[in-house]
Write a structure and sequence with these properties.
With 313 residues, this protein is of the alpha+beta class. The protein has three domains: 58 residues, Uridine Diphospho-n-acetylenolpyruvylglucosamine Reductase, domain 2, CATH 3.30.43.10; 111 residues, 2-Layer Sandwich (Uridine Diphospho-n-acetylenolpyruvylglucosamine Reductase, domain 3); 113 residues, Enolase-like, domain 1 (2-Layer Sandwich). Helix content is 34%, strand content 23%. It contains eleven helices and 13 strands. The strands form three sheets. A five-stranded antiparallel sheet has the order 5-6-9-7-8. A hairpin with a 2-residue loop joins strand 11 and strand 12.
């Protein structure tokens, strides 16, 4: 432990625990006055601005084993809490096999943010405008949590119970993310709408489908920036599952997804515009995901990877 302060930062106590257990205990002891520091992309600016009151900062920099990226034995991918966005972007298994997640990370324009920021940190900020959260949700990702009561896995949509909140309890820390293996005939697509490349998204959409025997066997539509939290458009998903993905059905599902949104008016967009563009982007993402799913089925087992999602530019 050491005492630290910086220009325009209020004084705070800084801890560098060596284990997840030590970090968890520190957070549990200090309660709401403590925050976890990973890359610091969000926390430090908020401390400078005074929008978050923190007297204890618990860094994960010296905790070994949290910067991993690996293929799971089942064929999915896992990565740790300290894995940077840049490392994930450069990971071939992600780029080839999980193209929508790659796209979500790749379109982030700030090199500094990607080199310093972590994917888990992005998730824990709990902003509804996150690009990474909907992409992971469409792949049925789970959040790995460790704390005083042990370890648990939280499905990503359940990680956000309310605006700006996560499902973390006292002393709990996100240690990593698990993304399950994707089956034959799977395809996914990420799209967002921004004013400029560096801006926060007005709407974020990730669609993922599994097509077999000409029918949609599974559909995932995850939306961001159009409700208090990132969420799955379950009514739209239900319309697709078990049906042939015709142009007319995709239009109906996109309209249903737009009806599920709860957007707001703010400086970046009106609620009406967000709802209208959600319908457009969901339709585009579903068409793109369906195309990738058909390629996946045709190329299953080929050198380009199991998903057939190889990102196209």
């Amino acid at each position: 432990m050491s005492h630290m302060s910086a220009s325009k930062l209020p004084p705070f106590e800084y801890y560098e625990p060596a284990t997840v257990e030590q970090a968890s205990k520190l957070l549990d002891n200090h309660g709401d006055e403590a925050r976890v520091l990973a890359g610091g992309i969000d926390l430090i600016p908020r401390m400078r601005a005074g929008t978050v009151k923190v007297t204890q900062v618990v860094s994960l920099q010296r905790v070994n084993g949290l910067d991993y990226m690996r293929r799971s034995t089942a064929g999915g991918i896992d990565f740790g809490a300290m894995t940077t966005l840049h490392a994930l972007e450069r990971w071939e298994d992600l780029r080839v096999g999980f193209g929508a997640l790659y796209d979500a990370i790749h379109q982030i324009t700030s090199v500094q943010a990607k080199c310093m920021g972590t994917a888990v940190g992005n998730l824990c900020v709990a902003t509804p405008a996150s690009d990474v959260a909907p992409a992971l949700a469409a792949y049925d990702a789970g959040i790995l949590v460790a704390g005083p009561k042990g370890e648990r896995r939280v499905p990503l949509p359940e990680f956000y119970p309310a605006y700006g909140c996560t499902a973390l309890g006292p002393g709990e820390i996100v240690t990593g993310v698990e993304v399950p293996a994707i089956p034959k005939g799977h395809g996914a697509a990420f799209l967002n709408l921004v004013r400029t490349h560096a801006d926060i998204a007005k709407v974020t959409v990730t669609a993922a489908v599994v097509i077999a025997d000409g029918l949609c066997k599974q559909a995932r539509i995850a939306l961001g920036a159009v409700a208090p939290t990132m969420f799955s458009a379950e009514m739209a998903e239900a319309l697709l599952e078990g049906e042939e993905m015709t142009h007319e059905l995709i239009r109906a599902a996109a309209a249903a997804a737009a009806r599920e949104t709860r957007p707001i008016d703010d400086l970046r967009s009106t609620a009406e515009y967000r709802r209208a563009t959600t319908e457009v982007l969901v339709a585009r993402a579903l068409h793109k995901a369906a195309g990738r799913a058909r390629v996946s089925a045709a190329n299953w087992g080929a050198d380009r990877g199991p998903s057939g999602e190889g990102v196209t530019r």
